[in-house]
DNA sequence: AATTAATATGCAAACGTTTGCATAAAATTT
DNA sequence: AAATTTTATGCAAACGTTTGCATATTAATT
């Protein structure tokens, strides 16, 4: 019975050639005659031969595989990034192995060990919330395995990073509210210990400063994880104020959506009485009524950029250790929630 | 310089033992003394040795890797399934390599070749829309690589399948509308050439029959891909009817949500005047007002089940070729859109 | 004390490819 | 015709593990 798959040697025996010749013929090496190449190709087709890439990887110490570590795959942002990574990697002949850290530093660390053993040629990472030390990544660094971080990137750790300009995006979003005539703009922010949410708050502040608006303490609220529920709580607080805001810049779309709903239930008209801007362009932003003005963070493009950078570093000849920080352009998608 | 990573042989030399002994010690083999095991473990730690799993895979012809082919990763349903797959695989010591077919049969076919060469030990697949012949999968079958299909599964091709009972779920959803008092129930369906959408329509019909409701042709509308936009179009048609329906069973949540919005804009009260039920439990179903009653298709559990079945088949001793079809239980999540 | 059984370790081949170097044959130059 | 270059192919080692079998040592049984 045909127990085993055909190998180079089988092909060689069939054709009366050496295995090395077959290997080179399949690689379209110069130095192998056209005639032989054709014979080999034909026979390979006939016997259904395909290279055992594990053996090849082993011999060449090249796996053509990159690893991706994300907190969770089922978060839309990450699934978009992964989609971008897969797309670029596929076209470059690389495979993508995915891992979820589920925000556990322990699991994240174990995954880096697996990737090391499996000889991943590079790794793309979005840090979990628990991660504040980077020893496990330094280990990969020492093994000369290129790393690219995106979104939640390490601070105080030199590394390749793909980010968006959160500060500027927030600045523009807030300025947009000012431009449509808002006079008192509130902010629903995320945890200030997370870089990106801090930057969004700073951008918001800067826009107020530029336009000489006062910063009103009771218009700024930080949430733990920008959840739908927290957004509703904050919205209720804003609603209860003697003098309500007439615009809100939210650090994500979930809180923006729940705010819209809270106000609507209380007969506050959006955008007439309060204009709202979100962040991230979640699918829901195009569905909620009124459609939500939001910042398109171009997750797919982030993924593509991360893969491109990583693969470039993998294939680079010289290993002058260098890191790159790439900022992806965002765009403000103006929709009805802020159009007057 | 420490150019290369430490190998078993390095360890062996350091300890004055044979490589085989080291290998066995690290495997916690019986037949290696406790003393030696400890020595080896300590030295391994000291030199930062970890097995080269490529070499191991090569020697053992076991890669501990499974492949996943989905049309697109950024569709929420698939990202949830993948999340389930990764979760189960991780706990079983397997890695997950993902590929997007982007609904191209050509790409799907090329991916199967890659998986074959890379010695994936099994593959989980959701078919692309173009796929109607299964030769590329038969090839994997012949190589004894176990396959598990989910959601969009092949017809007329014996294979492992993870599905939900679309017929029964739709039946129950429709019956629920009847129970809350709906007398004339419409249906927004998907392409009837796709098995799952056909089954949902059949389930809807069966519930009407059971309760002796007439099937009204103008209350049933099929869309091309159950998009948000198509849902709105159908809703407008239903709205224009001289005698409107008082309940709608939609084959997914997007159409259900857009129907809700169309009716609300036209001052039709949901659920009082029209009760609505969707399908799939998308995140938006918990956000839209009123919250949408929908069928939880348990995507995460489908992923877990797919991985469990696949890994069982990979590890099974006997290769009596057999296929399994596993049906995942759905549940009807009753929310405000159908509560009177 | 001699035999047997149990325990611990080593030897060497194998997995399928790739690659530097050698060699043989053909083509070109002297 | 001899020497040189070019072209095409083969040889054999190597990559790092694993594993069946052999062997050496110690312990247990007669």
Automatic annotation (TrEMBL), chains A, B:
Pfam families tied to this protein: LacI, Peripla_BP_3
Keywords: DNA-binding, Transcription, Transcription regulation
Protein name per its UniProtKB record: LacI family transcriptional regulator
Record-annotated HTH lacI-type domain positions: 6-60
SUPFAM superfamilies per the UniProt record, alphabetical: lambda repressor-like DNA-binding domains, Periplasmic binding protein-like I
Alphabetized InterPro entries for the sequence: HTH_LacI, LacI/GalR-like_sensor, Lambda_DNA-bd_dom_sf, Peripla_BP_I
UniProt keyword Transcription regulation, yes or no: yes
Domain of life assignment: Bacteria
């Amino acid at each position: 019975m045909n127990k085993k798959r055909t190998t180079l040697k089988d092909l060689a025996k069939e054709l009366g050639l050496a295995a090395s010749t077959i290997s080179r013929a399949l690689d379209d090496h110069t130095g192998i005659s056209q005639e032989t190449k054709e014979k080999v190709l034909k026979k390979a087709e006939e016997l259904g031969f395909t290279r055992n890439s594990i053996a090849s990887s082993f011999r060449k110490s090249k796996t053509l595989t990159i690893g991706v570590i994300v907190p969770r795959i089922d978060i839309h942002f990450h699934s978009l990034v992964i989609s971008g990574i897969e797309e670029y990697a596929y076209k470059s002949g690389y495979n993508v192995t995915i891992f979820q850290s589920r925000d556990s530093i322990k699991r994240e660390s174990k995954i880096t060990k697996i990737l090391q053993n499996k000889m991943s040629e590079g790794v793309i990472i979005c840090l979990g919330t628990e991660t504040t030390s980077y020893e496990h990544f330094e280990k990969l660094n020492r093994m000369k395995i290129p790393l690219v971080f995106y979104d939640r990137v390490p601070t105080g750790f030199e590394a390749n990073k793909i980010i968006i300009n959160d500060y500027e995006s927030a600045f523009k979003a807030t300025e947009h509210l000012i431009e449509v005539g808002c006079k008192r703009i509130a902010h629903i922010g995320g945890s200030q210990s997370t870089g990106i949410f801090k930057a969004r708050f700073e951008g918001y502040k800067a826009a107020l400063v530029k336009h000489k608006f006062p910063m009103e303490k009771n218009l700024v609220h930080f949430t733990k994880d920008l959840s739908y529920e927290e957004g509703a709580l904050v919205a209720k607080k804003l609603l209860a104020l003697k003098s309500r805001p007439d615009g809100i810049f939210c650090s994500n779309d979930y809180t923006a959506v729940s705010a819209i709903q809270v106000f609507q239930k209380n007969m506050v008209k959006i955008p007439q009485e309060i204009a709202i801007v979100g962040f991230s362009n979640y699918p829901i932003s195009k569905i909620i009524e009124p459609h939500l003005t939001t910042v398109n963070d171009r997750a797919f493009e982030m993924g593509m950029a991360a893969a491109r950078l990583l693969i470039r570093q993998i294939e680079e000849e010289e290993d002058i250790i260098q890191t790159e920080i790439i900022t992806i352009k965002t765009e403000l998608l103006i929709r009805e929630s802020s159009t007057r």
